[in-house]
Design a protein that fits this description.
FAD/NAD-bd_sf; FAD/NAD(P)-binding domain; D-Amino Acid Oxidase, Chain A, domain 2; alpha+beta; 500 residues; RIFMO-like; flavoprotein; FAD-binding domain-containing protein; Glutaredoxin; single chain; binds flavin-adenine dinucleotide; 13 helices; FAD-bd
Amino acid sequence: MGAGPTGLALAAQLRSHGTRFRVVDRSLDRVRESRALGIQPRTLEALAGFGVSEELVARGNPAMGLRLHLGRRTVSVPLFDIGATDTPYPFLLFLAQSETESVLGDHLAARDVTIERGTEVVGLERQGAGVVARLRGRDGAEETVTARYVVGCDGARSTVRAQAGIGFEGYSYPQTYLLADLEVDGLEPGAVHSYMTGRGMLFFFPLGSPAPWRMLAMRPSDAPDTKVTLPLLQGIAERYGVRGLTLRDPVWMTDFRLHNRGAARYRSGPFFLAGDAAHIHSPAGAQGMNTGIQDALNLGWKLALVCRGAAREELLDTYGAERAPVGRDVRRFTDRAFVIGTSPHPVLRFARARLVPRLAPLAGHATAPRRRVFRTVSELGIHYRRSPASTTGPRRPRRGPRAGDRLPDLPRGLHDRVAAPGWHLLLTGPPHLWPDERLAPVLAGRADLVTVHRLGDRSPWPGVAQALVRPDGHLGYVARGIEQGGLRAYVDRWLPVEPA
Ligand SMILES: Cc1cc2nc3c(=O)[nH]c(=O)nc-3n(C[C@H](O)[C@H](O)[C@H](O)COP(=O)(O)OP(=O)(O)OC[C@H]3O[C@@H](n4cnc5c(N)ncnc54)[C@H](O)[C@@H]3O)c2cc1C
């Protein structure tokens, strides 16, 4: 339940697997405000299977550079151009959340998925192995529905989380933040602009639509605590050292406080949590919506397989095992970035005012640290190596991605080959090593679930290897050589021909 970006992504994945489901949302309309504005490379990769990423890129605004305004000086720091060759989307895409939701909504509408708007979930009760949900329509009439599973994609104040009795621990930040979508005269287009002072940071992001720029700043402690107006924003911008820019034509202005909280569990019996219902944190690094969408795409195919009897319930427990650590890491990383950027602590104030101006010009040359930051922020580095559903065969390939890693797009075009919903078995080395008879025991009873690709020498692994790619693009099983015992054991466990 919930048709924000997380719920829409889940619906798209369930639909692609032919699962029966309902999506309800209490609001009458989708979000019209820009809200989350950065789409990460991994999210674009993950959504590409639905055929929506090209449309998102067409509507958005890739930004490759950061301009750090440090008093009278401006330093340019490349954002993402570190030569990432293993993804078709090596950039951060700026696009308003309202547009992202519109693209996903159109995708679902074209596939006859109806979002039941104006329908609120007002009660959830466990019954046997499933749930009885009480839904209230816009006319106040109530309906009860029986479901095997309920996924709470219902945001930070999640009803599902409350009804499932799952805690949401964390803390709130003391400061207030100001946000506006507007036009800024005099600002160089196509880059993120950051004004850094001892008192904090102010950003302008190239949004495009519904306004050319997003402004984000901490409200200085000595600034008036009044309603957000254009003159207030102009005054605050000048206090952050902005000179010669005129703010105008705002389409959205607001202030808000930030929180850092996480769900104690991602599953309780038939209830699952995804997106903001499971984790909220600062917008530093544009991770919130992206993490939610990727939660959904980790869970959707698992639910689909279990619902059609092609996998055991056990598969559903890997959702929390894989995504809860990701949520924790994102909360930790965004907290650090945020505190460094905004803390009034004297050491950090000094660092922002004195050290950053000296070190920033070197950032463009620091390729290795920038590559590490890119893998984290882009979410391409997320892996599930410690998941029970990630297995390395008796012999591990000498190089290349490991079980639990995301499949890289190497050679380019590999992602297109494995885009169809389902599992994909990649076989490398001379194709004659992989006759159909050799694969028969693995594929028997699963031919409709697993597609086989003989890649020859053009693969991410050297020599002869076998790898089973999950429907979410992560590697479930990886091994060197032609021996199939390990792979057989893997599919018997996770894709049993006769699930219990
Ligand atoms: C002012 C603002 C600015 C933001 N800026 C950024 C940003 O710059 N970068 C970033 O990454 N993130 C940002 N975010 C956060 C981002 O919007 C969220 O991370 C994202 O929307 C989470 O998506 P979601 O689908 O998990 O939840 P939501 O988008 O909150 O969707 C939840 C849906 O569930 C529905 N719902 C709730 N309860 C019920 C119920 N009982 N019955 C039926 N339906 C229900 C709601 O109507 C809603 O549509 C911002 C958020 C706000 C509010």
